[in-house]
Design a protein that fits this description.
Blueprint lengths: L4 H7 L9 H6 L9 H7 L6 E3 L4 H13 L4 E4 L16 E4 L6 E5 L2 E4 L5 H12 L1 E3 L11 H7 L6 H4 L10 E5 L7 E4 L16 E11 L4 E7 L2 H12 L6 E7 L3 H5 L12 E7 L4 H9 L5 E5 L19 H9 L3 E8 L4 H12 L3 E2 L1 E7 L2 E11 L3 H14 L2 E3 L6 H4 L6 H10 L11 H4 L19
Parallel strand pairs: 1-3, 2-3
Antiparallel strand pairs: 4-5, 5-9, 6-9, 7-8, 7-9, 10-12, 10-13, 11-12, 11-16, 14-17, 14-18, 15-17, 16-17
Helix pairs in contact: 1-4, 12-13
The chain binds flavin-adenine dinucleotide (FAD).
Flavin-adenine dinucleotide binds next to strand 2, helix 6, strand 9 and helix 11.
Length: 466
Amino acid sequence: MTANIAAAKAALSHLDIEQSESAIKSKSRDFFWYSPVLKTRLDHVTADFVVSPRNEAEVIEVLKACYAHDVPVTTRGAGTGNYGQAMPLAGGCVMHLHHMSAVKEVHPGRVIVEPGCLLKDLDAACKEHSGQEIRMFSSTWATATIGGFIAGGSGGVGSCTWGSLRDLGNIIRLRVVTMEEEPRVLEFRGEELARVSHAYGTNGIITEIEMPLAPAYDWVELFVAFDAFTPAMEFAEDLANQDGILIKLATVFEAPISHAYFQRVKPYVSEGSHVVALMVAPQSMDGFDTFTARRPEARVIYRSDDNDWERNPGRVFEYGWNHTTLRALKVDPSITYLQVRYGYPQHRALIEKIRSELSPEVLQHLEVLRENGKVMFAGLSLVKFTTEERLDEIVRIHEEAGAMIFNPHRYTLEEGGRQTVDDRQLRFKKEADPKGLLNPGKMISWDDPDWSYAQMYAYPKLQAAE
Ligand code: FAD
């Protein structure tokens, strides 16, 4: 099977095709460079062409033409994924969905939207329409799309209350186009959603999304400082467990993260300060003040509705989730990170164990997460990178202690997830992408069902560096 790029391009020449070489190169990249491991392997990857369909009919045209000419198609939302998810490992076509950004309908409790809509634009439209907002969003709210969040993300701001995207009820419906000689348009709800959500666009293209909504608030954003780590961690968890206080974010930064990497917070903390970042609903602030007054070790150093800081720190959620790593990287390029699940009920004990073994080489950055009604932590720990071997050893230390790692230094679905085949996604790929043209190289179980995961998967058809 050899791709006939020229024929596919010619068949699509009436669509919006990117002509500039430099734009093609930049639209072939995402935030893969976050990982020193992926940076060395994927830096050269580029598409042969980029096409931007304006509607579902044009998506179908792109898929049909590329199917006919055996051209791989990698879908792009905004390219903020940080595992190389949106990168065309085997070249071919990048299908950029930025034109498909309409908010189609807003109803009480739900919205219907096209995939290329930015998360911030979606929130603005829902707020203006009826004072509503999406339940959760990636901390890349200002730049990422709703389609990319569903296909490539997992959860984020709001997950302390609502859980993750994969939890039942957090996506209502997805409309999906298949990659076949005659592409089909399918509608998924319930169990079927798992086929394509968080599948990196390897088995279908999402063209319409129905999401649940919550009431929108002018969230009060806060930083709270502590002299010791354990009370900071307990504060965040206990606050999330207060049934009557509504929060959208609770993040813990071990010292000296805030002092070392958050320039605008630095004047208000010492090197030894452990900091909790929060979003609290305005009507919950009385409850929050009472909760905080009971803990003399907590010092509120910033609240967005009342402060005298010389420089506005910006949105507090842009310090959390993967933004913590971004801020640290800007100050110290040798910093990288790991994604850890500290599962209930061992979460606190596990975190203390890992801290005692690995701090300060690994610094704890924790996000409060709700899973099956239980409050626990996701870790996006900052790691001082030395070698790939040491990084692998740090992963092993976590796993031996009982903490699950989602390895962000891998570009496949399985290695970035639970290192197991998702049968529902694989079965759907066989049906929906029989030639294996959608985002190739990202699903190991498609390429090599017997892969052992003992070492990093290397996609055999990865574009060669020049
Ligand atoms: P892209 O990067 O363009 O695409 C992501 C994946 O989805 C790719 O595999 C792509 O092929 C596929 N895809 C895109 N659109 C479609 C579609 N319509 N149909 C099928 N497949 C599609 N992630 C989180 O979950 N939570 C966070 O809080 C978070 N914070 C981040 C912070 C920073 C600073 C960075 C760099 C990344 C962060 N991420 C986070 C990862 C990423 O930003 C999010 O997953 C984001 O929502 C991806 O959106 P995007 O539009 O950029 O998608």
